[in-house]
Amino acid sequence: MSCAYPLTSSLSWEDRPYSIQDRIEKRFEVLTKCPRSSWGLFNGSSVYGLCKINEQLLLKTIIQNAPLKQRNFYVVDIGAGDFQWGKALANYINSDPDIRDDITVHIFNLRGESYFHKKLIETDRCKIYNLGAFKVEEIFEEFKRNGFELEGKVDLAVSSWCFRHLVDPVGTFVQTYNLLRPESGFLMVDGFFFVCKDDDINSVDYNDKMVQLFLSTQSEFLCRYEDMHNSLNQFILRRTNSSSCHIPMNYADLKEVYGRHHGLTKDVTVFDKSTEDLEYESLEEDSSVVVGDEKLYYFLSEKDLFVIPATWKPLRAKKTDRV
User: Fold this and answer.
1) What gap in Å lies between CA 48 and CA 40, rounded to an integer?
2) pTM of the model
3) CB of 160 within 8 A of CB of 79?
4) Sheet with 289-292, edge to edge strand ranges
């Protein structure tokens, strides 16, 4: 089988074809007409606990491990509902006596729905930016439009039940990865949907697609089984290099897909791959196990960041022959 693109190709969200970009514009237009987030049960939360990790303690650990000369820290919540998570995080940062007083944590709460109230709230250690009508699928340009340059500065990015509703979550993932601080920035996210042209649409394993995506970043990550409301698995990634995110895929088109997973819309972005998938041992359907990078697991475990303890198993990924 021959590749549609050379092996050096890498996904760029700016190369989205018209069909995908047009769908993004239309969905965003609908969202901006909503005066508030309306997801009901999934309308934000004060704590997400993705991968059963305490993200407030994780940020505290990030701050404590950072060089003393670093005074500004940046956090992004993508799909922030009614901004509950950012507010709770700020309350925690302001009240913990073990956190340095000479820092400022910039918390960016992003949502597609409009927001007409106060956009900047300043507290003792935090600046909270509540940004509505924010097109997260063009997160780079949207930050610039709002006067922020965050590439390579974000210490923690989180997203719960948002990426699965995007037209192009993979392109948004690439942008979000590049926002992370090299060598130390974290991303916590749950699974989302995309397919490749050669996939059997009736039997595609979306959790496998997610693992392949994270493997391609060549950064440390862990995966934890999750099936609440037919959800996909959850992931935490630490950016361990300064290289831009290199995903060996290219845009093809949109495809109508139906499935059992909650939030699976009929329009899913389709990609061409420029390499074969990596082989790894099958993931266990066991929420007491995390699979992936051993170094990251012991870092989180030794810092007591797991709300629910987990045992570790390796992914044992290896490269296969390219097609």
Assistant:
1) 15
2) 0.93
3) yes
4) 120-122, 126-131, 104-110, 72-78, 156-159, 186-190, 234-238, 220-224, 289-292, 311-313
Contact 305, 57 (CB under 8 A): yes
pLDDT digits (tens, 9 = 90+) for 218-276: 999 999 999 877 789 999 999 999 999 999 999 999 988 776 665 555 688 999 988 88
User: Who contacts 46 (Cβ-Cβ below 8 Å, separation ≥6)?
Assistant: 84, 85, 87, 88
- 3-class DSSP state for residue 188? strand
Q: Are 25 and 166 in contact (CB under 8 A)?
A: no
Phi, psi of 179 (to 5 degrees): -75, -25
The domains of the chain, with CATH numbers, are: 13-313 (3.40.50)
Alpha-carbon distance of 207 to 127, in angstroms, equals 36
Enumerate the H helices of 124-263 as residue ranges.
Answer: 139-145, 169-179, 206-217
